[in-house]
Amino acid sequence: MSRAHVRAVLVRAAAALLAVSLAGCAGWGGDSAGSGGADSIDVLMVNNPQMIDLQRLTEANFTRQTGIRVNFTVLPENDVRDKISQEFSSQAGQYDVASLSNFEIPIYAKSKWIAPLDEYVAADTAFNQADILPPMTKSLTADDGKLYGEPFYGESSFLMYRKDVLDAQGIQMPAKPTWQQVADIAARVDGKQPGMAGICLRGQPGWGQVFAPLTTVVNTFGGTWFDKDWNARVDAPEFKQATQFYVDLVRAHGEVGAPQAGFTECLNNLVQGNAAMWYDATSAAGTLEAADSPVKGKIGYVAAPVVKTQSSGWLYAWSWSIQQASEKKDNAWKFISWASSRQYEELVGGQLGWSRVPAGKRASTYANPDYLEEASAFAGPTEQAISSADPRNPGVQPRPALGIQFVDIPEFTDLGTQVSQYVSSAIAGQMTVDEALKRGQRLADDVAERYRSRENG
Amino acid sequence: MTTTLTRTTPGHQAVPKKKDRGGPWLSLLAWVVGLLFVLPVVWMVLTSFHSEADAATNPPAVVAPLTLEGYREFFSGGASPWPPLLNSMTASVISTLLVLLLSFPAAYALSIKPVKKWTDVLFFFLSTKMLPVVAGLLPLYLFAQNTGLLDNIWLLIVFYTSMNLPIAVWMMRSFLSEVPVEMLEAASMDGASLAKTLRSVIAPVVMPGIAATALICFIFSWNELLFARVLTATVAETSPVFLTSFVTSQGLFLAQLCAAAFVVSLPVLVAGFAAQDKLVQGLSLGSVK
Lengths: 457, 289
Fold this sequence. Notes:
The complex is a heterodimer of chains A (457) and B (289). Helices cover 45% and strands 11% of the residues of chain A. Chain A has helices at residues 3-22, 49-66, 77-89, 104-110, 118-123, 134-139, 163-168, 179-189, 211-220, 237-253, 263-271, 284-288, 329-339, 342-352, 369-375, 379-387, 412-428, 433-456; strands spanning 40-46, 69-75, 97-101, 150-155, 157-162, 277-281, 299-303, 316-322. Chain B is mainly alpha-helical and 289 residues long. The chains are: A alpha/beta (457), B mainly alpha (289).
């Protein structure tokens, strides 16, 4: 191409860009009418595989049925949390629907940033709220008794283990193991296959990383972050014992690079045969049992290990909420009602495969023969884990706030993340557990102090 | 860009006496440094042609079979990549044009026909870059929200123009001051008007400088993430924001992300290679100063 030709092309392209932009267009995305189109809604959601499937299925199904166009913004988890809190706290009204977890929903509800859904649920009988697993509804209901979110998919936690590896050592995994039994098994299988650690446990800093599994361990060891009168209990003997146990286990028989390992790293470890056991989210099973997974059919699933409590699984649900400032709440509900429906699960099952169904929210999913055929290995343990989770009473003592693997207060993200950095250092061997929790106690006490003075004043 | 710089490096082997012995070693060093800089990009391109499972292995699988899966996912996966790419193109091209339009006269007034206290003016331009960008983020967000300009590409164009303007003025000034005074005197003696002088005398001399300035402004606007992420939503989303959407905390994404990153960096690479000869002149013109 000659130079003059290139120049001509460039000039023409620039002119075209200018012309289109000057025509008053705010950008190339969304529908052509801009984001103000009456029959369109804007959705902000986290980039998890289930959401990407939803994005792909929306136009050909939801839009075709209802005529409502859906514009998605998809962001990684941390970014989406930032963006949602920025958007919702200023009530900017750019997005009608956002994916929020059961951590944010009761907090946002208190600030009146999201709209209650009870009226929509009552009017939309086809949605069938009674089919949603009760712990889910409970965790999405705020203190005022109103429902503020509908789950898209839910998860609890359980223990995953390589059946073949345990069999080779003649080890029988109990159906409801205790943490001591798990530690013993980890010691026995550690290194029995080249490069295979006994167990994979998250060690990556972050309130939603290491402290998701660790807080459930603390709960079942009898510990808690706060007692019901808002006294910080981070340096209490039970909390310390649980953390020491967790750190010792992962240091002795855990994965390589544990202080940086989160959900994804552990998932990779298990898929690649670098770990014999893994205590983590039930949603991992879908990937482990996917058709192209090298460990498909080799994994066994049992309930979250316990010590003093009957069950110990966490409860987490990516859910949909409607922004209070949205002007298209009716259309927003239609979208939520479709995305969280049983029919959507059947659509995913039929088109993409039953292992990709956003499960863990509806009782009917676990009665569906198609789903059970695909997910027989983990469907039962998953439903049991979710159904036995109690977000209002997860430990051995009454709690001041909702939440199993977290304390449902806005301060917990900072608190949990800071303390998790100390715990992660302890896993890396740079700090003792005592020291880590002593610092954690100070931070937790600052938070508790605020709540105590609020209750007294 | 990197290769461009590496190629100029052998030119710096300044000591003629040691030329015979030092030459090969210096060239080798230049190549090693150049390759070190290019390596991450090569790695990204290679990974983009791997399957997700191969991309995630540790140690890395260099010779894994190649596939176009990542690119297929990028173009026909979830969301269409074209609106963000077009948004980035709009914001970068228009803001770069505006910057050139504004910085050229400013630079003229600071070098060839300097205004009074021109050093203060120059410093004043630069001082606007001293405030951390993030410090202005919240006021700008609230401003955009109140004026209804959230998620509007024109807001980004204005911001990118003002962000790049000081740098462009400084660069252009240093290029313009390279123009020999004798040439300007000769032009004015021949009776050339200001417009004629600008077009026929100054422009050809500083063209490499303009190209270098334009490319840098284009790259800065193209790659800007912070403002774009905070101020755009579904309509004016730019490619860097779109790129982050490939990162997920559940499941594998490395190959797809590398494919996306490669496609998104293509326009900059193409612009860089197209302007390569101009750039070598332009960048060394500035650096000699």
